[in-house]
Amino acid sequence: MDRLQKVIAQAGVTSRRKAETLITEGRVKVNGKTVTELGVKVSPDDKVEVDGIPLEREEPAYFLLYKPTGVISSVKDDKGRKVVTDFLPEEVEARVFPVGRLDYDTSGAIILTNDGEFANKLMHPKYEIDKEYIAKIDGIPTKKELNQLKRGMRLEDGKTAPAQVKMLSADGKKKTSIIRLTIHEGRNRQVRRMFEALGYNVLKLKRERYGNLDLRGMNSGDIRPLKPHEVKYLNQISIKK
């Protein structure tokens, strides 16, 4: 038996907090009866409706995809481009969706799940889940510029949080460098905009790590189920913070 708002959130309808609002507004029915109290618990056999639409509950599913460049972080694309769910094995019937997004021209680690509550926790800024990127840029930043990244960059949507930064290599002839950058925010094209604020263009970008998940043993386009301890760890992060 689980609380009604948790069941709604896990079905991917909305966050648990917004599910509570749906309940108190009288927009949720259990076995045909409107429920307005938050303490109600339901079993897998109970029929839940939100705004008259039956809730389809599935077993929670969690996957890690090594997203290639040129793939949309969505479940469908009106332009017919490849999307992240195209990489799921045929036998997977769960209706999963990406947690957050990676830009079309960025590769790397992205989580797919049908657990809406889990996804909302991972994307919430207060949980500060680390995301590690490897960027190839068209220049060689100075130590002063790297320190600017570490302290936080002033962007049009506000100053970024402090980042972990390390230059991995520099090519004096080609005037390019490889830099590891770890952030916990998830703003749109944030890493690229941070470098652009210093006057550098990102030539290639890959997200190497998301929380405790990395790409070791995976090739571009590979997908694997998350192990129970990996899901548990990510859930525990949100409990601790």
From TrEMBL:
Gene3D superfamilies: Alpha-L RNA-binding motif (3.30.70.1560), Pseudouridine synthase I, catalytic domain, N-terminal subdomain (3.30.70.580), RNA-binding S4 domain (3.10.290.10)
Alphabetically ordered keywords of this record: Isomerase, RNA-binding
E.C. no: 5.4.99.-
Pfam families hit by this protein: PseudoU_synth_2 (PF00849), S4 (PF01479)
Span of domain RNA-binding S4: 2-63
GO MF, one annotated term: 23S rRNA pseudouridine(2605) synthase activity
PROSITE patterns: PSI_RSU (PS01149), S4 (PS50889)
CDD domains per record: PseudoU_synth_RsuA_like, S4
Family statement drawn from the similarity comment of this UniProt entry: Belongs to the pseudouridine synthase RsuA family.
Protein name, as recorded: Pseudouridine synthase
